[in-house]
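Exercise 3.2. Students should predict the tertiary structure of the chain below and write it as structure tokens, then compare their answer with the key that follows.

Predict this chain's 3D structure.
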Amino acid sequence: MAANKTIEGALLGIDVGGTFTDAVLVAGGRLFCAKVPTTANQAEAVLEAAGRVLGSAGIDPGGVGYFAHGMTTATNALLERKGVRTASVATAGFRDILQIGRQDRPRLYDACPQRPATLVPEGLRFTAPERMGPRGMLDVLTDEEVSRLVESIREAEPESVAVCLLFSFLDPGHERMLGERLRRELPGLHVSLSSEVLPQFREYERFSTTAVDAYLTPVVAGYLGELAEGADRAGLVAPHIMQSNGGVLPLAQAAAGAAPLLLSGPAAGVVGALFSGERDGTQDLIAFDMGGTSTDVSLVAGGAISTSAGTEIGGCPVALPMIDIHTIGAGGGSIAWIDAGGALRVGPESAGAIPGPACYGNGGGQATVTDANTCLGYLGGRLGGDEGLALDREAAERVLDGLAAELGMEREQAAMGVRRVANAGMVKALRVISVERGHDPRDFTLLAFGGAGPMHAADLAAELGIGRVVVPDSCGVLSAFGMVVGDRRRDWVRTVYTSAGWDEEACRQAFAELERQAQEEMAGAELIRQADMRYAGQSHELTVAVESPLAREQLAAAFEDAHERAYGYRAEGEEVELVNVRLTAVISLQEPEIGASAADSGGSSRRRAYFEGGWDEVEVWKRRRMGEARVDGPAVIEENEATTVVPPGWRALLVESGNLVLEAF
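Answer key:
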């Protein structure tokens, strides 16, 4: 896609993870990196990381022309239920939609399923005596009733309110009337209207998404406001914020609604993975990001990132466009433990950055995946280069000895067991986004990044039959790098469904209205049109591209082709329904020109490492000194942000783009 906007000055990207905060700076064709522990106040870690990477590049804050940021604030607040006190307003008779939810059973044979607590407690659920139908107003919402509602909400003293009325996605009049009064008469109250957050059918998902937005926005806005003030004091430009869809927004727009920001950091990793793969001409890849707390996996086919129309996070459906990312609680800091049946388990609890794994020397007393890798000889010396964190191998051995004693085995066996259990969970995640989506993983390259990803990548690839692994340059901070190569992007959706088919002119009008909104907010953007379609009687849709001019027959044919690719068949003669129209506005930023990091030829050292065959003296290479050497496994390749393990049967080569390529032989 051609660039629409050129940026003068250095590019700064900062990603806040559960364990570390990563920063990258692109300046003068070079890439500078920094990694600091994530702090309780994430803004402090962001500014510290910025100062460190600017210092390493010798650039003043005023030399930064663009600053992009990804965060975990929204995700953590939702998972930990640390949002604000939130009220809701529903149509009379539908007060408890969030409590009732969908009557599905995620675990079919669980007789006593435990659902997460709803975001709106029972005493804060209000109703409006109104009713919109699919063909217009049925019961009017009077000024007197609005006044009563406003006073009731004032007395309840919530910090935020979610308003979701029936059929407001078709006629938002009552929602807008109520929202205007609440914003005017209760100025300290945040108001999320479903007709603004998600004007789309399916009442429960729309209500849930709106409630999530209301519950989190004050928290996110507070954090972003603090970050903006800190950046201004430091002399930095105001940051853009990465969204779940892989695009960025100016901070002011991002602070207005938190729901689109839930997968902010992981989405940036996929964007960075695509950029890194394309430098070698790799367009079919599986992005594998293993950090300190979790592992995120996603699929890129034909140079296109896989997306979805929503997901469920913390038991709450969020029906907004986002990159299709599958996350599990397995990272370098994941704690190994033994369950009631005596089986070894790993995660999802993590040691975090403080105290962190035992080998960090900060008092961690439980065995983690990083401790296991240290005991096996894969990690040695320091993390983060010569001035980085010195690893305490003796501490790692002590906690592994304790775990091994409980399991009745040797230390090495326990450490390998921890790796195998962690790997099993990650292989399952990789199957979810490949095999379960109809893709053969053997047709893809595994692109591994994150601080821990390259240590496990070859083992996972072998399990899936993948013969090629790519470890990008500066792979340990790739999510931060994805911030600076992401486009500006906004998404809009509108339901146009009618059971008797659809009117082409009505669809054109719906697109025209969305396009007017897009031009107001992102003038000059490239506009991408899509439609959600299904066969009559289906309860799920497929999203297909809409070509111009819009033609019903061509659109139906495109849907049937997509249905056959996804499910292996087409229902000849069945009516095809159009449900939603979607519009995406994109302003591409000029892609940075980055040369490969210098790689001088040099020798390797040796140290003892444990593989399936036992202990062995293996080569240990510094990635920056590999030159054109072909490294046959078993071997270890170290760099400041990550370590790559090359097991027996694999070889590694540093290619011209700066990517490290592992191939099975």
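Discussion points: DSSP finds 16 helices and 37 strands in the chain. Residues 492 and 534 are 20 Å apart (CA to CA).
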